[in-house]
Amino acid sequence: MPPTSETLTAERILAATEEVLRRHGPAKATVVDVARALGVSHGSVYRHFRTKAALREAVTKRWLDRTFESLSGIVAAEDLDPESRLRAWFEGLFAAKRRKAGDDPELFATFSVLAAESGGVVDEHIADLTGQLTRIVRAGVDAGTFTAADPATTARALFHATGRFHDPCSAREWEQPGVEGELAAVLDLLVRGLRARD
After folding, report:
1. What pLDDT band is residue 117 in, cutting at 50, 70 and 90?
2. What is the pLDDT of residue 1?
């Protein structure tokens, strides 16, 4: 590919890396492949990402951050009561994960491999998500809707209790008939447990 006149940015490199991963998979994709796709030398890529591992970690973080960002509006939706916000957040998380798995299964499988390699990035992603949940739980406590002595601990418990609907290990179950109803039943149970007692 001829050299490009477009400025090489970290974002362009990450977008190209995602495409290379989609084509070649994590085992065969190389920094040279990414550079070739961009029409630059592999040294140019290394100026932005010092190692192949750093590049893979950054592209994994970018992919995971899309889910976090897609849920931010729900967290901030003060026109929704905390219970509705909690339900919408989990439904949004499930929809985002299922869309990733269903719309692009090759890339989903690739990122599942990369996420396993990038434990710190995954831990940070889970902390970001449970941070969003903590804000919703705290809003419910402040409104008198929820009872939770420690909103952060409660948020982590809610996240783990719903793992079947967002953990990539359960992706095969996400297309089964009635799965949305199962999520709704789990959320009903969790919300009943959270409701403030008079």
Report:
1. confident
2. 44
**pLDDT at residue 139 tops 60:** yes
From the list 141, 193, 116, 138, the residue with the least C-alpha distance to 162 is 193
Burial class (CB in 10 A: 0-12, 13-18, 19+), 95: middle
Q: How many CA atoms lie within 13 A of 191 on its CB side?
A: 19
Task: Write the DSSP symbol of residue 104.
Answer: -
Residue at token pair 């995971």: 64
Q: What is the pLDDT of residue 198?
A: 55
Pairwise CA distance, residues 135 & 16, whole Å: 35
Q: How far apart are CA 91 and CA 191, in angstroms?
A: 14
Q: DSSP readout, 31-82?
A: HHHHHHHHTS-HHHHHHHSSSHHHHHHHHHHHHHHHHHHHHHHHHH-TTS-H
- Type of residue numbered 190: L
Provide the b/e sequence for 29-39 (b: ≥16 CB within 10 Å): bebebbbebbe
Instruction: Encode pLDDT of 26-36 as tens digits.
Output: 888 899 999 99
Sign, CA torsion 185/173/111/102? negative
166 token code pair: 């967002």
